[in-house]
Every structure is written in C-alpha cells, then in structure tokens.
C-alpha cells in the first residue's frame, strides 16, 4: 500500500501511510471509557504479526480496566533485565501457586541471569547474551538451566509486549536455541555431577585451605558439612548455634521442605568464627554487596583450582624433560574424567561412607537430607541421629585432612 491514507486490519488496528510514504501502525480502542488512538510503531520496526500481538495485548489490558497508554509511557524508560524481572513478577503475582514458588522463580534468575545480564537493557539483550547465561550450566545443571531459559523467555516476552524491546525473543527454544544447545533430554551429564576421587581429596583439601576469599571459605564449609550449595549460600547467622556446634536449616530452604539439623565439626565451627560479619547483611557467606553469594562464585573456586593444578602438572612434566600430557588431569571425576564440581563433593562423601566406613548408608542419606524410603523414615521418625552423625562428620573431616585413612570403622551405638 503506497497511497496515503488509513487502512484497517480489523479489531481497531490500522496501517497509516503518510504523504512521505512512511508507514506506521495505530490502534484505536476505548481506554477507561475514552476512545484513544495508540501508536504501535513504524512498519520498518514492527511487523504485522507483532502489531497484531501488541494490539491484542492492549485490548485485553483495556478490557480488564488497565491503561495501555500508561504502559506505553512506562515503556519509554530505560529498563534493565533486573528491573524487568521485578516488573514481570509484580504483574504475574497472582499466577504463582504461592509465595515460595515466586521466590524460587526469582532466585533462579538472580543466581544465574542476574550477574550476566541483570544490568543490561532488555532492548539490547541478544541470543549471545542468553547463551552466556545458559552454557556454563547447560550440561551440569540441565534441569535448572532448562527452567532458567523458560523464565528468561517469559521476562523478555513481557518486556516486548510492554514495549521495552522489539524483535524476536532471543531465549526462545524452537528454531533458535534448539539449534545451538543439545536437547535437555539428550545431555549425557544430566544428573551426574563430577565428583572427586577419594584418593585426591586430601590433596585437594590442602589446596583449598590455602585459598583466600569468602567463596573459598563457603566451599570449605560446604565440604565439611556435605551440604548443598544453596543451603550454604543462603545460610544466615540466626540458623547457627556455635556453642552447641549446630546449624539448623529451616524447612523453607530445604529441597524436601523439611527442617534439617547439621552437626558441625570443630573445624567447621572454626571456619565460621573466623568469618567477618557485614552490618545489614544476615548472610554468613555474603556477596561483596551484602546479598547472597551466587552459585557460580563457589563453582569458580573449584574451576580455578583445577586450572592451577593442570598448570602445576604441566610444569612438573617440563622440569622432568617430559612432553606435557594432553589428557585431562587434575581434580577429576574417576569415572567421567571431567573436572569435579561443588555438588559432586556430596557424591564423594556418599562414596566414602558406603565403600570405606562401617556407618550405615541410611545415616548418610539423612546427613545429605535425601528423601528416603518409608520404612527407613519410620525408623528415624523419633530423631535424626544427630549425635551419631556428629561422629561420622568428624571422621569425614579427619579423612579430608589426611589424618585418618579413607577407611573408618568407628563403632556406633543406639542413642
């Protein structure tokens, strides 16, 4: 259409062609009882499909008593991804099952997307930005990464309809990221977190204790307690009883939604006592600005340790006159030969209990806060074997230090 004029597409959507030849989309609708013309953008930037989608969203909003014109004014703001998450969650508050679900949804974005694209304008986010968020965890935390992708897509979809960005959604899977990432169901590493070989643990532990920084101390504490990363990163001082050497994780922060008591070894208590405290932050292992430390921060410690160990072994080969090995080596999983990750330390602990100690496997499952069978659960219902587990964790700590062999046969009796 080249002749100047107005051309109807239906449902109040019009194409205006100016005398200059410029073309733009305009929607006519009733907003809070008043007929209004709402510009949707030039044809050069907004396709017919996008104009129809925007028009439909505006009609729905106007029918519910909202004001699309106000939304458009807000869209003129420079909106970052972090701000878009806030707006999206506020708009969708009623759609979440409960407040816990909303917090979990938010935590995933804060942990993985926030450090990478949080400060970036939503209008500038590209497919490469989304890949920078997803690729580091796509094969090691596939289920989490898949959920994260969907949540980024939802936020960017809202930002597009609200007028903060244009074009295709860079987090869309079909015909987009599906061509660049392996299908979640086909990722071989899914559910198999690389774990340290027991024989390498004392050497790795000695290396870790020389590392400085809050993240290194968090990793040290995580190892001593065999806890999940999220449990340690979200740990607050009011959960800890230093004199009683006890850490109580509330049900709201546990995967199984059940309170979990963790006996602390002398070394674990010493780690906590040596930590600084930040005014205004409740977290034990706080991020530089006082918030919760990200999962990637702890993972980065292990990654740096692996890289340093590879360089050390290469230097050993060089000094010995040997050709440096091209095979993967360092702190590796003995089965997959992949570098160990923080969550894999729980597997190392479980392997030690089952293969090298006389402690019952069910006690290890309680220590790991795993879901256990009904029969076993009934047996433990009256207590969580706290004192028995205290001795088991002391033995684990001694094995890490190399002061006790991998095999522990500490007798244990009924409480």
Automatic annotation (TrEMBL):
<dbReference type="InterPro" id="IPR013762">
    <property type="entry name" value="Integrase-like_cat_sf"/>
</dbReference>
<dbReference type="InterPro" id="IPR053876">
    <property type="entry name" value="Phage_int_M"/>
</dbReference>
<comment type="similarity">
    <text>Belongs to the 'phage' integrase family.</text>
</comment>
<feature type="domain" description="Tyr recombinase">
    <location>
        <begin position="191"/>
        <end position="393"/>
    </location>
</feature>
<dbReference type="InterPro" id="IPR038488">
    <property type="entry name" value="Integrase_DNA-bd_sf"/>
</dbReference>
<dbReference type="GO" id="GO:0006310">
    <property type="term" value="P:DNA recombination"/>
</dbReference>
<keyword id="KW-0238">DNA-binding</keyword>
<feature type="region of interest" description="Disordered">
    <location>
        <begin position="309"/>
        <end position="344"/>
    </location>
</feature>
<dbReference type="Pfam" id="PF00589">
    <property type="entry name" value="Phage_integrase"/>
</dbReference>
<dbReference type="InterPro" id="IPR050808">
    <property type="entry name" value="Phage_Integrase"/>
</dbReference>
<dbReference type="InterPro" id="IPR002104">
    <property type="entry name" value="Integrase_catalytic"/>
</dbReference>
<dbReference type="Pfam" id="PF13356">
    <property type="entry name" value="Arm-DNA-bind_3"/>
</dbReference>
<dbReference type="InterPro" id="IPR025166">
    <property type="entry name" value="Integrase_DNA_bind_dom"/>
</dbReference>
<dbReference type="Pfam" id="PF22022">
    <property type="entry name" value="Phage_int_M"/>
</dbReference>
<keyword id="KW-0229">DNA integration</keyword>
<dbReference type="InterPro" id="IPR044068">
    <property type="entry name" value="CB"/>
</dbReference>
<dbReference type="InterPro" id="IPR010998">
    <property type="entry name" value="Integrase_recombinase_N"/>
</dbReference>
<keyword id="KW-0233">DNA recombination</keyword>
<dbReference type="InterPro" id="IPR011010">
    <property type="entry name" value="DNA_brk_join_enz"/>
</dbReference>
<feature type="compositionally biased region" description="Basic and acidic residues">
    <location>
        <begin position="309"/>
        <end position="319"/>
    </location>
</feature>
<dbReference type="GO" id="GO:0015074">
    <property type="term" value="P:DNA integration"/>
</dbReference>
<feature type="domain" description="Core-binding (CB)">
    <location>
        <begin position="79"/>
        <end position="160"/>
    </location>
</feature>
<protein>
    <submittedName>
        <fullName>DUF4102 domain-containing protein</fullName>
    </submittedName>
</protein>
<dbReference type="GO" id="GO:0003677">
    <property type="term" value="F:DNA binding"/>
</dbReference>
